[in-house]
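Components:
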Amino acid sequence: MKEQNQHQEELNTQRIEASSDGVFAIAITLLILEIRLPHTDATHQSVATALVSLWPSYFAYIFSFVMIGIYWVNHHYIFRIYQKTDHVFNLLNIFFLMCISFLPFPTAVLGEHLLDVKEQKTVVIFYVFGLLLPAASWFLKWLYASSHYRLIDSRLSPHFVNYLTKQYGFSVIFYLFALVVSVFQPVVGIAIAVGLTFLYLLPSKQPVYRDPPTL
Amino acid sequence: MKEQNQHQEELNTQRIEASSDGVFAIAITLLILEIRLPHTDATHQSVATALVSLWPSYFAYIFSFVMIGIYWVNHHYIFRIYQKTDHVFNLLNIFFLMCISFLPFPTAVLGEHLLDVKEQKTVVIFYVFGLLLPAASWFLKWLYASSHYRLIDSRLSPHFVNYLTKQYGFSVIFYLFALVVSVFQPVVGIAIAVGLTFLYLLPSKQPVYRDPPTL
Amino acid sequence: MKEQNQHQEELNTQRIEASSDGVFAIAITLLILEIRLPHTDATHQSVATALVSLWPSYFAYIFSFVMIGIYWVNHHYIFRIYQKTDHVFNLLNIFFLMCISFLPFPTAVLGEHLLDVKEQKTVVIFYVFGLLLPAASWFLKWLYASSHYRLIDSRLSPHFVNYLTKQYGFSVIFYLFALVVSVFQPVVGIAIAVGLTFLYLLPSKQPVYRDPPTL
Amino acid sequence: MKEQNQHQEELNTQRIEASSDGVFAIAITLLILEIRLPHTDATHQSVATALVSLWPSYFAYIFSFVMIGIYWVNHHYIFRIYQKTDHVFNLLNIFFLMCISFLPFPTAVLGEHLLDVKEQKTVVIFYVFGLLLPAASWFLKWLYASSHYRLIDSRLSPHFVNYLTKQYGFSVIFYLFALVVSVFQPVVGIAIAVGLTFLYLLPSKQPVYRDPPTL
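Structure:
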């Protein structure tokens, strides 16, 4: 009976992982739909000029693609650590996916108005806020799952669990920091956010287990 | 031979579950495409003002995301109860998915016109109608599958089957009620629909089996 | 060695089936994006009037959804019959998916102009042509796979194989017929196409095997 | 322990293959969204004329669909050769998917302006550049994975590995060549790109193993 439950729980983990995969794949592929060539008839631009002047949209496309891609890789990483799921966790995961799916919108807004001096601050703040949302909901999910080893592998070393808590917590703090900086210096704010993301391109630390392992 | 058929039937259940998963993932992620920044050049608004004035679209985005998310979680729940599938059930499932896929449209309409006093009633009625559709087609699917244990696990207790029939039936009645209220008091109507959805955030009852179980 | 190849081939069949599944799920869910509320400010319509006057778009949405849904169900049916795949078949399948993915476009065109007397004939012809394309490419795939039992289960009775060839061939002929009729009587033409589709709502015949089976 | 790692690595290969599958399915199906009927009220065209004058968009749709389809088939082919994955490879794969997902944009631009004599050169160059990107990132991925048999099946014959390196390298060179030609003769440039793609419709060479195989 207990074994069946455990099997059921693991199945659920696989299912939530696979379903979320779909949302990642779609959100990341939808980004391109936000890049649109302006109607050159109206603006008397050549198409070449229009294509070049879209560079903030290309930048936003690339950066948001990398962001979602990193979360995707981390999603597969962290689901080796999550071993069970429960109703609250399912809801937190939906909230997290909502934040990931939201990203194409601030990406489009950033791309469209980044070069507009008057609006730069607004769109950078909005975009960095759009980056903060998935970081914060990811942290929330982790806090819920890791607290007293509620849903994570019980064999993990407390040091390692602590390490992840700190890492994900700092991530939220840094995006918050970038958000505050954006209010004063939008260019610096987005530079911090971009730099922070480069850090996440580094590989995640391999899970560390208790010694001796409780096999 | 019989075993092979059973295997085939279970495979079909998994397949219909997985295929539907794709539609859920896509419909939920497409919602963001319905939020668009108005062309601020034409309206002489600042982008900040435009972003703030989109709040009904954010509300509609969040609420529809939660709605589809809840159906998704319930979809995985109910497919632990459905054990077989047949042609009629496949068609009913397509009809249900059609209702889920339709939701982004009333969501967009609601977001665009919620603040427009003259149009508020129309768009709330249309949105609540959009919520009624998946509830009704879900109920239809359940009625077909559960009637005389046609497609559901035969070990389930009749009390439990009854309980689900009532729950899903009441859901339809409540959305119908919210629809009628919307005709007179749109704000109250949508508040009922939102409140009803909060109820669905509660976990579903675990399946209850006959006693003694026919293992 | 031969067994490994066979395993590989079956894997490929599963893979092509699963990959195609994704295209079905996306094409069917994208249909809703083609329904857009006109800007009521420009037309001085109320939203209610605009929503009602979109009925041809709802009709086109529902009908195309059912069409793709039926192909989807048949796709799962026919992949119980296809047992191997090869390079040509992969390419034919891509061609078939291209025809399925194309359907949202004629659907949008039909929805937008069905009520426009002057354009009705054009958009019905274009839509019926859009229905003919997947029927024709489906037939092509079948002809290639079934000819001399190239890729289908060798245990199937020749009568049954013949039956499917006729069924899929007639389908192409009927859509062609509906296309020709649309040139003269668009309303009759689309009615034939709709009626034909209702026939496909009937369950497919179960595979019939040779007697005695060559197990 | 080593066996578990190997199992983990193979799982990762399957996961990266499946996740990428989703992006392929979505990018290929999104292409149709880039074809839009112009507002015939404004242009005083009949819908029939408008539909016919969209032929460059149909051409671009078909060609890009075939391109992504070929990459998809090759993706399944090459993942029989990749046997492990690592962090750098994951990032390279995200970069490759970014290039695949980008294709709908140059496709739309090509479709919209191919017939515009003044803009033809620009949009052909941009489109061929859009074809070069996935070819180049595919090659990069291959170079990383195949160098010193880092991630590929160690039983593969060095001749075969060399053969693939040459094939993928030539592909990049040919698209570069088509790009350069497009600067002078856009029609010739796109003809070369189309012709090159036809070559890829040929089946890929079956993997060749060392002799004697190190089983």
